[in-house]
Task: structure prediction
Amino acid sequence: MKQVLVLCCAVLCALVLAIVGTTPPFPRGQDTPAEAFSAERAMVHVKRIARRPHPSGSAEIAQVRAWLSAQLREQGLVVREQAGAFDDPGRQHLNARAGLERADIPLVNVIAQLPGRDPSLPGVALMAHYDSVEGSPGAADDGAGVATILETVRALKAGPAPARSLYVLLTDGEEAGLRGARMFFEAAPEAERIGAIINLEARGGGGVARMFQTSRDNGEVARLWAKAAPHPGGDSLSTFIYAFLPNDTDLTVALERDYAAWNFAFIGRPELYHSPQATPANLDRGALQQMGEQTLGLTRALLGAEPLPQPAPGRVFFDVFGLFVLDYAPVWGWLMLALAVAGGGLALAGRAEGRAALGGLVRMLVLLVGSALVFTGLNMLSVSGEGANYYDRLAAIPRLQAMVALAAVALAVATFGRKPRGVSGDVGAMVPILLLGCAAQALAPVAAYPLTIPLMLTGLAAGLRRFVPAGLALVVDGVVAAVSLGYSLTLGFLLMQGVGPDMPGAVALPLGVAVMTLLPLRPNPLSRGSLAICVTCLLTAALAVAAWVRFDEMAATIATYS
Result:
């Protein structure tokens, strides 16, 4: 009975931690102190920028540009426009989306400077694009980024003048191939005076604002962010994965230079990406608050830094449920794996059961491989016809998350629901995760922590059972399970937001880690009948969700040009 109670408490605590880790902070109001960031103050700018669609070359973007220039001048910045024209591919792209035949389309960046006390020091740049796609007001992409910059400048002006100059770069043509960013970094003299740059983006309408990309050799870059950012969101796993994705933002162009660089975005409410419903009213103010707090904190630290962050070996870093950041040298991952092995070996000493250990190992392999295949298969069932609409698939992400969650529980119960308690089986189940952890530590040490840390905690908890009373050991197992399951749920949620429509099989790994940490708490084995009913009901529900996505009408939120 105690074991069931601890299991229930661990799962409940894990759910709370996952909710905390995937929920942005509350937005701050107009009465927020002048030197702090206020989402409500920033929303004044969002409402003006995103009152209607403003794609490059439109009459509306010219009005937005004039308003932004005026706002920056009112705050005491020196403002100029960098004017050019779209090349043929960019012009053809914009004309195709607008249904027009324009011979020339202007390309205009807004560049502003807040001079620092020492103009000889490399400056700090804040960058966002102020164009929207055709048919979308662009409240999030990238009205939120532009508004964040305006509110950040206001908050900085409320404090003492910094030594370094602050540059504001509002680019045109991002939605047509990063044209404005390329024009700036190829021709603007301000590009030579910058030493650090922060870019702000969005792929959705809310959720946690996370740092997902940095400059190379980001040891110092990551440490400064970790110290400076309140309500942090970001991790070295994301920056590692993003480097292999075919996605581009304006920062892609900037990274061709040797700037210290950070890229922030939120990807929640994915149905609002490039949507006609991406209005100020639908923007998540909490996401705006978190983006602004991280931008302001990091910018303030950079303006006062001496020197700016320099290239340094990469570090492992991750936010702990949005509360604080842990960072450490990658080599510590090997120690974590050694402690996992030592703890598991200590737990088995003198009482190893080879058959039970092999059974745990095989069951975990079946769970990892089987769940990846089942998640992928369900995802394929959810797609209607060939060439699924990208924006419709984004709108389906919450349902795809539910589909995968139902299947994950079903598979976990199916593989381990009948296995009786036994330390050999528990340690055997650790072995596939341990092998994957060793491979990750060897090949991608900055991205291995979702494996190495749970392995270490699970192994140490297993070894500790030899030396402490059963009641205390049960509590330790419960704490390890709560923290590890909470992080696995958070990671699974974010993976589904990021790559779920294409690669839901990636969630198999956090599922395996979660099950590994829960095994010491599992209750008595289910009867065959109960297990069959449970698994059948859960898989049927997952199939029903897949069918719902497949046969549902096209989402009303899809981009008008798609």
User: Anything to note?
Assistant: The two ends are 55 Å apart (CA to CA).
